[in-house]
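Request from the bench team (R.T.):
"We need a structural guess for the complex before ordering more copper (II) ion. Sequence and SMILES attached. Just send the tokens back."

Command: build protein-copper (II) ion structure.
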Amino acid sequence: MTTNTLFAAASAAFLAMVSAPMAFAADITVTDAYLRVSGAMAKSAAAFMVIENHGAEDRLIDARSDLAQKVELHTHLQDANGVMKMIHVAEGFPIAAGENHVLQRGGDHVMFLGLNSVPVAGESISLTLTFEKAGDVTIEVPVDNERMPDMGKMDHSTMGHGKMKGGASN
Ligand SMILES: [Cu+2]
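Reply to R.T.: structure attached below.
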């Protein structure tokens, strides 16, 4: 009896602990994520997605995955010579309250350096995003090397009328 009571108390405490941050994580929804593996050598990859923030202002501060030895938050910046360069953004990306923050080609992205394996089309990888307030949000990111850079900006109202070949996944 004592054991049962203790167990129940411990379970309740544990549940309270693990469920507390979930309320915040629910404010963040990640949609339209995909992973692009670069080139035949496949030493690196990048993930793109739409981060929807339904809560207060937050910040994406870290990302981690078993896919690579290093996972960094990157962006593209134009240098003095007009050349686009990728840089590591140590302070992360601010995510405004109630807004979407888009990680896209030529802009902010999650970078995977030193791949432990090379995922192919049809596979997906697990990625954990760490937000300053929302905490950890783990998502599955499907590989899509065929995707065009501006796909995410397409006017979806026109989709379904055309005869799209190669099949948009939605
Ligand atoms: Cu990068």
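Two things stood out. The first helix runs from residue 2 to 19. Confidence is low (pLDDT under 50) at residues 18-23, 154-170.
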